[in-house]
Amino acid sequence: MNDKTTKHRFGSAEKDMIALGIATAAIIMFVGTGGTVLPSVIDAIFSNGSGPDKLLVNAMLLNIALIIFGWRRYRQLTVEIAERKRAETQARELAEIDPLTGCLNRRSMAIATDELRGNAAQRGLAIAYAMIDLDNFKQINDMHGHSIGDQVLVSLAERMLKELPKDALIARLGGDEFAFVLAYEPQQRSRIDEIVIRLFDQVILPFRLKTLVIDATMSIGVATDHDEEVLNPTVGDAAELMHRADIAMYHAKKQGKNRYFWFEPSMENELRFRHELEAGIRRGVAEREFVPYYEQQIDIASGELVGFEMLARWQSPQLGLVSPEIFIPIAEEIGVIAEVSEQLMQRAFADARQWDENITLAVNISPVQLRDPWFAQKLLKMLIAHNFPAHRLEIEVTESCLHDNIGMVRSMITSLRNQGVKISLDDFGTGYSSLEQLRTLPFDRLKIDRSFVSELRNADGSSMIVNAIVSLGRGLNMPITAEGIESEEVLESLKEMGDLKGQGYLYGVPETAEDVIERLGKINKLAPEQETKPVRPSAEHELDAIELRMKSAAK
Ligand code: C2E
Ligand code: MG
Ligand code: MG
To answer: Can you give the pTM of this predicted structure?
Structure first.
């Protein structure tokens, strides 16, 4: 019911109070007139009296009409008041309750937490605020749609309701973010640990929905207002507690998800550092601070240099040279990975055009980039703009790409391959690709992760996993690259396994574009001078043509 209607009804209810007053007055008058009229009527019937005064009879009839009118309005008033109360309750619930799960919402949770905290403090109790976030909710939504996502959230809320003590406050703060607040004896923190662990036990059980079964994990951060059993004066209110629980939850995510942490002050510094990194990366994109380094790729049997893998570095003015393991995950999360990658590839194509035309260039592509349906088109456009032959380019994707949207990844890989680009499956063995995916996805190469290759250092120089991957590659007709070759012993073991490519610190650490030119100059593997000139004049036309072709293919 909207505001206007409520006001209107309220106005009419006020008028009805007047109607009730009139009816009451009418009853009093009825008693008066009736007291005179009725005896004269009885007298007229039984003793042939002159009958009541006509004026008085009319007054009495008017009284009766007013009483009926007043009574009816009074009944209406009662109904309207009940309706108004219901509307008010509904409005309050809408403001306080999450409509999907029936839990408290962010606003009401803050108020309820402050209230609970006040009561708990009087009884000498501590408060624990737990922030809960599903780890893979975006994927669930993307893969199965929002209605399935909603069903998972409702089931999660039901599990929490069942598992948590009756006096816990439970809220859905938004999206897949839940929270619970509970008072506890300050000396018994372990009680909160037990409850959280029980919750984990429940959430790892698959969500059995009507049409499918969904697996989910969650990360939890917990904050308390008691430090070592005494009230912590720095926790001012519910908002502060929530902030701390949020930081601890974030820490749990960073530590690999599917776990929980109690808040510790050092986590706050970590978060501050993270914000600084984010800002630095954004600035780095604007200032083009990302630079390609190159790692040699060698044909193990002949020892010949056959290509380079481009590995990103961030030349930060504040932090110096930063490893991709630090900035790539953040660039992915804050949505700038495509831009970073594009800047790097532009430089790498320009660099690689100075190399001998038989030397290949491998670039790593993030799973986030593969979610862009236009990725293949953008990449091919870039190749043409730099006049870089597609057959010299190899893109490396990791197994995590295969979880996202296998159909789209397959069609993207196919269209890139049709243009001549090669596709390698990087860090093979560390993810979850199935044999079926390997068989049906058109990869050109498998790269054995260096954690397996390093096993070859064993005294007998063998590794069951490396052997298995090499024979799998042979069976699937996929050539193999071994990563992370650090010693002669490992290299010798690999040589016995057949025709492989290899890379690793034994051959050299990743180096700058200038160092690569120097290296290639020494072995006479630089491109002839004229080959290195920039974009061909006709490239612009070719660009437009390929854009047209791809657009019509997309239709
Ligand atoms: P990766 O693609 O598996 O690259 C190999 C990593 O192993 C590189 O680390 C390389 O320096 C290191 N490495 C090579 N040989 C050896 C060795 O013998 N021993 C040891 N201990 N390490 C070796 P880096 O450069 O730190 O790159 C780490 C990861 O960052 C890469 O793993 C790749 O997944 C990612 N990455 C690098 N550049 C890019 C990029 O431009 N885009 C994306 N999306 N990811 C990138
Ligand atoms: Mg790689
Ligand atoms: Mg790798």
So the answer is: 0.70
